[in-house]
Each structure stands twice: as structure tokens, then as C-alpha cells.
Amino acid sequence: MYVFLQMLFVAATVAFTFDELWALQNSLWDQFLYPANLLQINATESSVFAENVQGRVDITRTFDGRELNNEYIFGLFSDPEHLSLVGIPTAYKITQFAANENIASATTIFTFNATSFNNTVVPVTIDTWILFNADGKIAQYDATFRWFGWLLDTLLGAAGRLLFNTTDPAETQTRLGDLLADTICQTHEDYCVGENVQYPSKAECVDFLANKTRFGKAYELGRNTLLCREVHEHMVRHRPEVHCPHIGPTGGDYCVDDKTYADVVTEIYFREPFIPVG
User: What is the pTM of this model?
Assistant: First the structure.
């Protein structure tokens, strides 16, 4: 029976050439860059993602389905005029790459323009494992922001110098937290209306986020933090009914402290292993 199941799995395996997987990887990153990413936010058949895609990013959470992944991967870095920690991706270079059958693993160094911090340019390294389906769509991905803690400290330092004229980390975090809270709450005022309202007023929203919610550490963009709500604030305008709860007091299902370190590390999430047959 075991051999029979193995044979079925082998028969169902998609086999791309190395060059085809290299092209698929580059095509993804070409569309990740601004402003090409604008076309992917609401894409359906032209999306790089399969309809039932599973995605995981180490500093945030898991993301199921095409719509959510389009909004997160492309919408999060798509507005240079809006307050954002990292800004927009403008260039990339793949520095490590291995591929077999329908799986590709890559290390990519991106150039991000942190437009909110006087166009501060920073390199961002992202490691990815991607599994493609027979149509060349992404069925699964596992992404890690390498050295993100250091990157966050670098961005906070730039914010302190350029926005607040200070080199004190505590003062910078407080003042940036106030600015982020005000921005998130304005987005709530603009888009979270009717049944999607999360706060009685903007003042109560700002007070909750600035004074009653912790700012968050580098690994807490998927926990009950201000940084997590900063991530989801960028997606509210696309689907308020889905994302308004994420910036609200409860955090929806995304900005919550529902898992321990061990829970996250040992979670079995993906349908298929990132291991080629044999």
C-alpha cells in the first residue's frame, strides 16, 4: 500500500526544469516591485497565486487563499505616500537559488525605499521556499525576513533622526507609536464604517493603540501589538469587512497573543512537504 501511494504521489508531481523554476522565481519578484505590484493586489486569473494558496511569513502569520495573499504580499508595499515602516520595493537580486521538480528555494536581497523616512534606502533579505502547481502558480510559500530585528532597529533609528530629531530609542518608539496610532485610526475612520466599526471614536482608538497596546518586538507583527495593526492597516481599504477587526481592539484572528514560541515553531501548516520526490 505504501509503495502504491508513493507511485501515486510521483505520478501527480509537477516537474519543471531548473530554468523554468528560475523564470518563475524572477517573475514573482518582478511583480513584487513597485509599481508592478499594484496590478496584483486584486488579481484573479493573472495572480501569481493559486486560488487555494497557503503562505507563511515568519514575523507575521499564515495566510490562506489568493485574495488575502494578494493583499498582504502586494498591497502592503504599494503606497509610497502612506506612512509605512519599510516603504516600497524598487529592485532585487537573487543571491542563492536551488530548485527541483516544482520547488524553488531562494535568498533575495531587495532594495526598499522607506519613503516615510525621507526616502531612506535599505537592503532587505528575504529567504523563500516556494511550491508551484502545474500552472506555474504559487501553491505554497514559506518566507523569512533575515535579520529583521536589525532592520527594524535601523528603521527606528532613521525615524528618530529624520522625523523627530532624536537619537533616543525610547523617545523614537513613543513618538513613532503615536504617529502610527493616529494613521491607523484615521484609516479606521475612513473605511471601518457601519458594521465594521471597531472603536467608538478616533480619540478612543488612538488612546487604545498608543497607550494600551504594546509597540511590539521584531517577531511580533502577528501578535497583539501596534506593529501588527500597522501591517493590517495597509489592507483595510481593500476589504474592510475582513481587515477592520485586525486593527481593532480584539485584533481579529491575526493581532492576538494566542500562540507560544513552541506553538509557532512546531506548527504543521502546509498541505505538502517542501521536499522533492526521492
Answer: 0.92
